[in-house]
Amino acid sequence: MISPLVLEEARLAHRAATAGEEVVKAPSADNHGVAHPSDEYHAVPGVGDGRPAIADIHGRCDALLASGWRRVAITAQATESGESLPIPAYLNSTSVDRVLIGGIHGREPAGAIALSRYATRLAELGRDRSILLLPLLNPWGYSRHLRYGPSGQSVSDSDHRLGRAEAPACPEAAAITAFVLDTVGINPGAAVLDLHEDPVYEDPSYHLEGHGSYLYVSGDRALEHPVARRVRRCLEASPFPLIKEGVTRFGERLVDGVILDTEDGSIDELLARKCRCSPVITTEIALRGETTPPLPERVATYLDVLDAFFGP
To answer: How many CB atoms lie within 10 A of CB 258?
Structure first.
């Protein structure tokens, strides 16, 4: 009898062959590689904050294929009905100097939406820049407005690749970290932008004073890098200026709006330490409610941040 995993991989390969998509084989039998996107993939999430369907996010990014980019299937997340939500990457080179990340936490949709709406500009930028785009790493959480994936863990947890854990936190973490370390070539000194938000409202005991944003910055001399300087200036001039002082829910202290070289087991730490990327910039906009500030304002700010990241 052929195992279900083998059948799933065969179906994924067939779909990729007919759609021009490459498949990265699952690193373990626990991976949720499933053949066909579910109805949930095409449905607008019933969250009420205006976020589009997952298919819309991917559809905008798929426009990059016409400019010679490749779409690679990293893995997929299983739904309760046994169907799938794919997690693709987009890249225009075998080795890259720019990495864009969004949608790690499902309650933080602005980054994924902004990245998808930036695809037209990425097609232009990609003419003379090598770029890796990871637009939505947790579609399951995105569609349900939940922070983590189906296993209740961060989909990009990297402690197992940083020597702090014996095994991956979840199947997605195994696949995503394997992809960035073992499959795609991320050049030393590559600049990274990971677009997050901080849902302050979800933890009643968490009190972050101020309205605005803050940054995590990692890497060799990262804070003084021109890319980091531009992103800081952009946020300072935005509707969400940097919150200069405070302590995050994880006990990290803000210094002039920045947390420097944190050890948090994130994919950002992984890229800074294992790939020697710099600067690695993680943006956070403080959310006081599910629709506060309004999602369109947050997306617009992140589109400006993307312009600042790439520069003139």
So the answer is: 17
